[in-house]
Amino acid sequence: MAGVDPRNYTNFDSQVRYAQAAERGKFQFLFMPDFPVLTGNVETEAPMINIDPMMTLAAVARGTERIGLVATGSTTFNEPYNLARQFKALDLMSHGRAGWNAVPTSDPAIAANYGRDLPSRSEKYQRLHESIQIVQALWGSWEKGAWLHDAASGRFADPFRIQPINLRGNHVGSSGPLPLPPSEQGQPVIFQAGGGDQGLEVAARYASGVIGAVYTIEAARAQRMALRNAAERVGRDPDEIKFFPGLMTTITPDRRSGLDRRIAVSGETFPQRVEYLGQMLGLQLYAARLDEPLSTAQLAAARPSPRDPRSAHALNIAREGWSLRDILAHGVIDYHPVIAGPAVEAADHMQTWFEAGAADGFWLSPDVYEDGIDALVDEVVPLLQDRGLFHRDYEGTTLRDHLGAPPQYGLDTRIML
Amino acid sequence: MAGVDPRNYTNFDSQVRYAQAAERGKFQFLFMPDFPVLTGNVETEAPMINIDPMMTLAAVARGTERIGLVATGSTTFNEPYNLARQFKALDLMSHGRAGWNAVPTSDPAIAANYGRDLPSRSEKYQRLHESIQIVQALWGSWEKGAWLHDAASGRFADPFRIQPINLRGNHVGSSGPLPLPPSEQGQPVIFQAGGGDQGLEVAARYASGVIGAVYTIEAARAQRMALRNAAERVGRDPDEIKFFPGLMTTITPDRRSGLDRRIAVSGETFPQRVEYLGQMLGLQLYAARLDEPLSTAQLAAARPSPRDPRSAHALNIAREGWSLRDILAHGVIDYHPVIAGPAVEAADHMQTWFEAGAADGFWLSPDVYEDGIDALVDEVVPLLQDRGLFHRDYEGTTLRDHLGAPPQYGLDTRIML
What we know:
Two copies of one chain form a homodimer.
Chain A: H1 12-24, E1 29-32, H2 53-63, E2 68-74, H3 80-93, E3 98-103, H4 108-113, H5 121-139, E4 147-150, E5 155-157, E6 167-168, E7 173-174, E8 189-192, H6 196-206, E9 209-212, H7 217-233, E10 242-251, H8 255-266, H9 274-281, H10 296-301, H11 311-319, H12 324-329, E11 338-341, H13 343-355, E12 363-366, H14 372-386, H15 399-403
Parallel strand pairs in A: 1-2, 2-3, 3-8, 8-9, 9-10, 10-11, 10-12
Antiparallel strand pairs in A: 4-5, 6-7
GO molecular function (chains A, B): monooxygenase activity; oxidoreductase activity, acting on paired donors, with incorporation or reduction of molecular oxygen
Protein name (chains A, B): Nitrilotriacetate monooxygenase component A
Domain Luciferase-like (chains A, B): 8-357
C-alpha cells in the first residue's frame, strides 16, 4: 500500500519517529494497547498490534524528552513483581514519564498462548485488584528521599526508608522491596481501559487516566460522569481522573480524499462488512451494490439498531447520499468515532465533546499512513491552540505533571488484600 | 567513591556508553546477569545488579550496531510466551544480536518476590526444559521467508509458513504462533550459566554459549571438556558450544595501584572477610592484623582448604608477602579469577587459558569504575590482537555470526515434552 512501509511492523525507528511527531504536537502521552496474539489477515496486512509495548517504549523513551509513555500490561498472565519492575524501569529511563494501563485479559486465544483457559471474570478482577496493590506497594517500597546517591558522603541509600511489602493475596503476592528507587514523578501513573462495573471500580480506585471506547457524545458524558461519581464514592477528588475517549483520524483537504485514503487502507474488507451495516440500519444490504447509495425506499425503511450504538451515526451518513462503500469508509463500524476529512472537523469534534463535559482529552489514533500523525500535529493541533483549548508547550516534565496528578510513593488507597 | 557516580544505578546513558566502549573493543557480546531482589549494603553501595536487563538492552540495542546482547531470563517465574516475545523483540530491534541465558531461579528471596517458595530442583529443571522448547518453537513459528513485506504485491506474510505450536508440558504451554517474524539471525541464541549435571544437560542440548564460574585452569579445562562431551552425547558438534569462563579485571600501570583501586571499591568489606580467608588457608586470622603479611610460622603452617577451589591461589598470593588487606584486594574470594595490575597480566591469563583448551573466550567484568571498560578495550584488546588471538573487527553483523552459530528457525533438537 502506498505510504505504508510493511517493514514498519518491526521497525523501532518508525515508532520513535511517530513518538517524536506526537511530542512536537505537545501530546501528553502515547498510549500503547497490547494484544499478545496473532490476528488479522496476515497475508495482506501487518497485524494491528505492537510487537512488544515495553521494548517499544524503551526505544521511544530514549528518543523523546517530554511525552508520557503509557503501556498496557495485563495482570492475568503476568506476575506483579515483573510488571512493577519493568514499568518502574521505564519510569526511571524516561525520567518520570511512565504509565501502566492495568487490565485483565479477555481473549481466549491469548490465554491459549499461556497454555491456559481464561479464568472467570470475577477471578480475573480479583487478581487485577491484588496485582495493582502489590505493584503500587512495590513501587513505594523506597520512600521519597530514600535514594541518597551522595557521592561526597558515600551514602547510596537510606535503608530505614526502604521497606519490604510482604503482601499476599489469593492469587498473587510479593515480599519486596523492589530494588528500584523512585523516579522524578515518584512512580508510574495507573491507567484503565476496561469496561463494565468491575472496570469502573478499578478505575475509580487507582486510575489517573481512563481510555474510553464510546461512540456518541451522550454516552461519553455518561461514562465520564459515572467515572467521576465512582471516584467520589471511594473518597477521591473526581478531577484526579481524566477521561480520554478515542478518536480515529484521517486528515485530508476534503472529505472525498479522506474517504479514498481510508478505502485504500481497508477497502478490501468492506464487502464482508455490508451485511452487518445492513443489520445496523435494519435493512438487507448486498456487497454487489457497494457503489450505490441507499434508495429512497431503503432510507425511508431504515431504523437504527438499538443493539449497536453506532447505528444512528451510520444512518445519518447514509442519509447524506454516500454509497455503501463510502458509508463504510466513514468508519461507521470502527472502534471509535472517525474523522475522515479536513482538520477543522477533527477540531470541532473535540471542542464539542470537551465543552459538553464528554471528555478531558482524547486518545487520538491517526490512520496507518506514516504521515497520519503529522497531519494531526501540523493541522489539527494549531486549530485547538488558537481556540485556547490546548497548551502550546509542556508545562512540566513528568506524566503526572501533564495529567495534573500529584507525585506518588506507594499505594494511593488503603490496602484491601 | 571517586570515579563512580552513584546515579549510574538508574542511568541508562551510562549503560549505553559502557556497551559502546565494549563495541569499540570488538567484544562479541554483552552478558547481563539478572538477580531480581535487593541485596548488599544499600547504605554504602549501589546493588551490583542491573535494574532490568531487557529494558537496558533495549536502550543498548538502539545505541550500538554490532555487539551481541545476551540477557538472563529465569524460566521459574516467567511465562514462556513472555520470554519468547521479549527476547524476539530485542532480536528484531538489534537486527539479530540477541541471546537468552536460560536459567532456573535458585534464591528463596527471589521466589518470595513472586509470593512463592522455590520449587524443587528437579521441578525447576523440568520447567526449564519445557520452557526452552516452547520458546524456541514460538520463535520458529514463522518459518524462514514467511515474512514477505512486499510493498509491490501487497503481500505481508505467507500464512502457510506461519504455524501454531500447540505445545503443552507439565508446567507450561503455549499455542502460538508468536506474532513476530524472524530476525536477521533467525532467532535469538541460547546461553546457559547454571551448574551441576542438570545445567550441563541444558547447555548440551540447547546452548551456543556457556558462562563458567571457575577458578583454576584445570577446572576450566575439565568443565569445557565435560560440556563438549555432553554435546556429543546428544548428537551435536562440540564446536557449536563456546565456553566463556569469567575474568574480573582492574587494569592499572602496576600491581600496587590496581590493589589500591580495588581497596577503594570494596575495602570496607575486608575486615569481615578475614576469618573466611583464614579458613581457606587453615589458619586463624584476625581483622586487627589486616595490614600485616602472614608470619613465617603462619606460612609454614598454612594448608589450602580442599573445600574452596580458590584456596591454593590465595596461598600463592600470601607467599608473595602481601598484607592480609592486599591478599583480599587480589580478589582471592571473588566470584571469578581477578587480574589487578598491568594489561599484560590480563592478556597472559587469557592466552594461557585459551591455549590450554580451558576457554573459547572470556566473560570479562571490569571493575565498577567508569573507565574500567576503557582500560580493557584500549590496553588489553590490542595486546591480544597483536598476538593474533583476537579479531581486529567484527566479521558479521549478528550474534550468531560472532559465535559461529548457524541461523536457526525453531527448535534445534527434537521435542521432548
